[in-house]
């Protein structure tokens, strides 16, 4: 598992979107019990926070200690810095294993082996992510230009798995059909800028060129945004679910 987000955990916690209730409404009826869950690659604990409302115990892991320091606190969430591919959990521990916007950084074969080891018989694994957002055609055109042409060379190769909706990631589990889900947020312009600053390609661009590439599009983006104080931001959700054993 690769760590690309330790340098901006505060921004990540503040500006990254959380996940819609529809995801959990689909998963929970599939479970035999809601005793112990593992949120792998938890980051700031967005998914762990939701799981903690229903599970007796949530184990939440990440390789970034900095991210974990900014994670949501709950009595039944146990955070630990561990790689996805090799944990200290005992065999047949978890009813549910979730990975949100992180699996594309993993060693897939080693992670899948670990999932089979620590998942209970008939447990559920859910891979969750989100694609590039949509706002309006005018805003989307500016963002797409930025995404492809300005910071495009600075995306790491693993980004392709997001664009492919995780469909080419090995998934050696009994896969279940999932609903189409859109995550809809209402954002101010400042939140959009904050979110763009969490992109790993923006960080890599800044490291090489010594300035923020968002500066190159800000006038066009402001004009496209217009006078609206708040706009609707739509994230198409990536969602793969399977039974582990």
UniProtKB/TrEMBL annotation:
InterPro entries: Methyltransf_11, SAM-dependent_MTases_sf. It holds the Pfam family Methyltransf_11. Residues 39-126 form the Methyltransferase type domain. Keywords: Methyltransferase, Transferase. The keyword Transferase applies. GO terms for molecular function: methyltransferase activity. The keyword Methyltransferase applies. It comes from the Bacteria. Transmembrane segments: none annotated. GO terms for biological process: methylation. This is Class I SAM-dependent methyltransferase. It comes from Sphingobacterium bovistauri.
